[in-house]
Amino acid sequence: MKIRLALGALALAALTACGGGSGPAPAPIAAPPTNDTSRLIVFGDSLSDGGAYSRGNSLILQLNAGVPAAAANLVGKFTDSPGAIWNEVLATRLGVTIAPERFEVGAASPVVATNALNTGTQATNYAQGGARVAKVPGVGCSPNPAGACTAQAAVPVSTQIDRALAKGSFQATDLVVVWAGANDVFFNATAAGNEITAEGTRLGRPLTTAETTALIQNKYGPEMVQAGLDTLAQVRRLEAAGAKRIVVMTIPNAAQTPFGVAGGASTQGLLTALAGAYNDTIRREFSAPSSTVMLFDAGALSSAWYTNPASAGFVNVQAPICNVPASLGSSSSFCFITGATPSASNPFLRLLPAGVTPDNSLFADGVHPSRKAHGLFANALYDALKAKSWVK
């Protein structure tokens, strides 16, 4: 996605002022009901997806790329698989297990997979790549001119919560995490770019900086504010269903990714503005101390790694580890790295410069974190939970 804008630095305050309110008063501060954890329950998008599409991805690699099943079955997470993503690392530290829902390939609406990997009944990770907070379609459904998805459609977090609640209420020993909003950024960035292009064609000239800024501030900034308020609404649903420990996470700034950098300054300006509008909204809504909700600023953490890589042990924050072909969406969900160099059995490892390895790189693909970054997210969140006395 390359969006030709001349936005410069948009005023994020102007975006976040477009909508929202203080929301319900936070719950009185009290000691947590327990620091025991029996279940880690996760709602979100590809940043948390533990393999929702692994069944389909494996079949695609086997049938279309001739990859042996043993290797193809390693794929499905949006990182340099095989290995653990952040919620799996956190689950291990908490002494619990976490399993993703998995779905059949090609279903317009997710259908639990009827195969050996079926974890529908015991799943506690409901995250799906492409999911938005409360709206459809998600990112990656490839809608036709009529708007119908032609590829698998990710359900939003609101529906993920429906699926969890169909199994019953939450318990005091559950730790619930919501990490969403990134796909609302990508969806609205694409829509904004398309509208700016169409309007320029209609006028017979490029839009001015003032015109593009006004469009973003008046239309797409409020969309991201609404996504933040939708997150608030979903958290209130979780509280009403008995959740006593809920973590809400800010999103990374996609401008600080290989994808964002490749788009140029105008694309980076747009992505920064949209992510900022969402993050500012949920920071405003969840920053007050609460007995049931904790805000974890994953966006600020990832930005700190990007701007000061050495502080987190990163050498490479520019080149993705995975080199998945465009025919597979350039997505690390098809990436399996089992050695140090590219080979027939390890085809998607990018040939990295001397001194650069998957273990010191920030990104698996154009936007998704490496396994190292996932581990750092998990450890930082665990430390924050301990500081709040929510976990042992």
Explain the overall architecture.
This protein has 392 residues and is mainly alpha-helical. It has a four-stranded parallel β-sheet with strand order 1-2-3-4, sandwiched between helices. 38% of the residues lie in helices and 5% in strands. It starts with 11 loop residues before the first helix and ends in a 5-residue tail after the last helix. The longest helix has 32 residues, at 209-240. It has a single domain (12-387), classed as Rossmann fold (3-Layer(aba) Sandwich).
Helix content: 25-40%
- Report the C-alpha radius of gyration, rounded: 20 Å
Count of strand segments: 4
Give the rounded overall mean pLDDT. Answer: 87
Give the percentage of residues in beta strands: 5-15%
Q: What separation lies between the terminal Cα atoms?
A: 44 Å
How many distinct folded domains? 1
Strand order, main sheet: write it out. 1-2-3-4
Secondary-structure element order, N to C: HEHHHHEHHEHHEHH
- Write down the CATH class: Alpha Beta
What would CATH call the architecture? 3-Layer(aba) Sandwich
CATH topology, what is it called? Rossmann fold
Low-confidence runs of at least 5 consecutive residues: 1-22
- Look at the structure and name the CATH superfamily: SGNH hydrolase
Determine the number of helices (DSSP H or I, runs of at least 4 residues).
11
Can you lay out the helices and strands and say which pair or pack?
Elements: H1 12-16, E1 39-44, H2 54-65, H3 69-72, H4 86-94, H5 157-165, E2 174-179, H6 182-203, H7 209-240, E3 246-249, H8 258-263, H9 265-286, E4 293-296, H10 298-307, H11 371-387
Parallel strand pairs: 1-2, 2-3, 3-4
